[in-house]
Specification:
275 residues; alpha/beta; 2-enoyl-CoA Hydratase, Chain A, domain 1; 8-stranded mixed beta sheet; 10 helices; globular
Amino acid sequence: MAWYSKAITEKKQQIGSFWVKCKQCRSHIWQEQWNENLWVCPNCNYHGSINAFQRIEQIFDKNTFKELFAGIGPVDSLHFNDLKGSYADKIIANKKKTGISESVVTGHGKIHNIAAVASIMDFRFLGGSLGSATGEKILQGANYAYDHQLPYIVFSASGGARMQEGVLSLMQMAKTCAGVARLNKKNVPFISVLTNPTTGGVTASYAMMGDINISEPGAVIGFAGRRVIEQTIGEKLPDDFQTAEYLLDHGFVDAIVDRKDMKDYLGKVLAYYNR
């Protein structure tokens, strides 16, 4: 029956190349329609994950984005190994899979003809985890914005601090916060865009430090996991807890903006600061 199993697998792969199944409403959308709608479900407005390059293409004016600090990448300082293999091997595999050196791409470009610096996190690279090189690229992006007096935008998408780097990862929380806080000395705006998910040490540091904090609809945003909090406080949490909508209602984010409107919204914010 091996031939039958192989035929079923091939059929599923063929179907998968034409359709996308929404993770929220479970409806099937034509792949072409899904892409044209910026990877957002046209039925329930679920915002699917996108990589750093797709984000750059959607947000920045055509051919204006120039990457910075592309050579900065992770180092296996602790020689970390677990049951699934070595951290060093995971770094190599993720670089090959994603085409980027770390879980963030940093650079500068123009949004509606207004220059800005940006760091765009990519969840494909080790779950967008915050490693020492991630923190360094975000810090260097802040330094570049400071030196050139350009607005700094960070798009967060992360599962939190990178366990394979231990305390070296946790140190990035303070380092990145110091970098973006320094922008205030020159009145350089820092805009934080939180996407699904933004959790752990990223939420507890630079992601919530924006002069304006913006989120995509339905994004999961939080520090500790829902079950951990419920077990700690002994209470049942609201169904919408740790969603962008819940945080907006409680004053932790300033606006929720659909992906299709994000470029125009950021353009208006930048124009306000650029007066």
